[in-house]
Amino acid sequence: MLSKVRGYRSCLIAAAIGLAATAAQAQSQSAGLPVASAPIIANGDARAPYAWTDFCKRTPSECAVNTQEDDTVELTPKLWKTIVATNLKANREIEAVTDQDHWGVVDRWDIPTDGKGDCEDYVLLKRKRLAEAGVPRRAMRVTVVIDEDNAGHAVLMIRTDRGDLILDNKRNAILPWSQTGYTYVKRESQARVGWTSLGGLSTPTVASLR
Predict the structure, then answer these.
(1) Which of 41, 66, 30 is nearest to 163 (CA)?
(2) What strand order describes the sheet that includes 45-46?
(3) pLDDT(10) > 70
(4) 157 and 120 in contact (C-beta within 8 Å)?
(5) CA-to-CA distance for 210 and 207, rounded, in angstroms?
(6) How confident is residue 36, by pLDDT bands cut at 50, 70 and 90?
(7) Dihedrals φ, ψ of 103, to 5°?
(8) Most exposed of 92, 155, 188, 190 (fewest Cβ within 10 Å)?
(9) What letter does residue 72 receive in the DSSP assignment?
């Protein structure tokens, strides 16, 4: 749970909605690359979430920034299929639970090795698996947004030559950042171990969750 911005509440998938996109929809999405779009622009430093700092102390290798890596990736058809499949697999196999129920604390970020987690944990798992598949960590940024319910949420941003794409545990469809309907607060820096502000940039239209 992200508790430091606008009174963040739990960022679990609502039980009444569930995952909006079906596996068939996600698989059909993998057939074609997304339309190219402009990237989001960072605009200064931001304070890292406390639970992220704690996670980095426990697992520093997950937070290191190698500036020799590419900061964007070429979105080939093969890579696109890998990203879509990784997003779908994590969304299907992780049981959404609060940090309080899971760990007995208000906010904890971790890789969900026990099959349970909230939005940050989905992000960390997807990032780890994509890194193991060869995607540069530097091109994958944990990102904090305000969602359609005006609540805190975490997503994984992948920076590509076709724009910044968002992997989300609320939907299986992978969207350009500008089509999510979210307000973008901050993300990991690509230059150092730290975070950068996204200025509260809002996207005008909420993409359909169905």
Answers:
(1) 41
(2) 45-46, 195-202, 183-188, 140-146, 152-160, 163-167, 175-176
(3) no
(4) no
(5) 9
(6) very high
(7) -115, -10
(8) 92
(9) S
Q: At CB < 8 A and 24+ separation, what contacts does 42-45 make? A: 42/187, 42/189, 42/196, 42/197, 42/198, 43/196, 43/197, 43/198, 43/199, 44/196, 44/197, 45/189, 45/194, 45/195, 45/196, 45/197
Tokens 């190219």 correspond to 36
Q: Please answer whether residues 19 and 136 qualify as being in contact, where contact means their C-beta atoms are separated by less than 8 angstroms.
A: no
Angle formed at CA 128 by CA 29 and CA 188, multiple of 5 degrees:
90
CA distances to 18, 99, 141, 168 from 116, in Å: 15, 10, 21, 16
Give me 55's structure tokens.
Answer: 């996670």
CATH topology of domain 23-202: C8orf32 fold (3.10.620)
Q: What is the pTM of this model?
A: 0.88
Write down the residue that tokens 């169905």 correspond to. 210
The angle formed by the CA atoms of residues 52, 47 and 63, to the nearest 5 degrees, is 35
Tally of residues, the chain: 210
The pLDDT of 191-201, averaged and rounded, is 94
Give the tokens for residue 54.
Answer: 């704690």
3-state secondary structure of 6: coil
